[in-house]
User: Fold these one by one.
Assistant:
Number 1:
Amino acid sequence: MFESPIDLLSYWSVKKEQVQNTRLVSMSGLKMNTVYRTVKDLEEIGHSVKQIISCVDNDEAGREFHEKLRKSLKREDTLVDHRPKNTKDWNDERKDSLSNSRLSNQKQTQLGM
């Protein structure tokens, strides 16, 4: 669950090799009803939702939403915390990842690799 479409796309671009059998959903904000509706819709078409992965922003509003979501679930192991650790959101994570990749490539070029 993502706060915005750009965070969803940024997460996918950074983690695309690791994202398998997963539905990525943007809530376009912090909307608990979007979480409930998504789970309900998936179950109605025969999917079993084993985990909800929280990829909301690493800020006060994101922390509060994550905690509220955790408390609302019947089983604690259903919610996986995948909020960004070093930046505010997944778009910033993507930017950092691209920047680090460019720096690494520049160093390799300078070393003649």
Number 2:
Amino acid sequence: MILGQRIKEEREKNDWTQDQLAETLHVSRQAVSKWENGTAYPDIDRLIQLSDLFNITLDSLIKGDQDLQRKIVIGSDNHSQTNLWDFMNAKGWVMLFLIVCVICWAFVKINP
């Protein structure tokens, strides 16, 4: 069973409309509809809210959805800080080249 089917099943078990569930989760009805149709996934905070609301484990909520399991990355920090050396290795050489070019251009303009 995929996540969308599971959300719909649990919502209907509680006799809630999509509007009622959306209002409880502070999302739009369209978001709930997309989740149930499988065209979008709730974010991790909403998944936790859903599991609490339906009184089921997060594991049982997402376990059958292989696509969602592949999309969830635990322990990944995409916004981690990098030190100067890592930055230079990744992008810095291009920036250094551009800075040197600008300095050379400015020097030529000042000293014709």
Number 3:
Amino acid sequence: MGYQVYEDPDHPSRWAGYAVPAECDWVDCRAAIHRGLNNKCEDHGDYVLMLDGQQIGYDRFDDEPDAEEVWVEQAGCGLYFCEPHRSRTGEHGSVQPKPDSLEWEAHLLTDASWAPWREEHPDLVNAMRARAPQIAEASR
């Protein structure tokens, strides 16, 4: 199996793969990326601040002299980020996935190789056309 294009198992109704153009999922970031595995937040290690066996926020670091930094393995969030935001794993928890790009939806709606998919998924195609009327006209 290749990873050029596939339906994202972590986020239904979203496409992933190195051939899928997208924006970084970070709030207010408009960096153009692709949804390939090298941009995905996957399992990783990270330092966390612990006090009495409980993880606490770094905003309490100065107030808790007994707190210590500990390396722990963390599950990735499964979202896609540009290089500067991918490394900010401790802040990914509040980030929501962005929808597929209009560029990608235009490809799905107009490229001949996707004609069988369009025939099999008329409801999704109509929803895409409703989101982007200018693409709808080009794809009829």
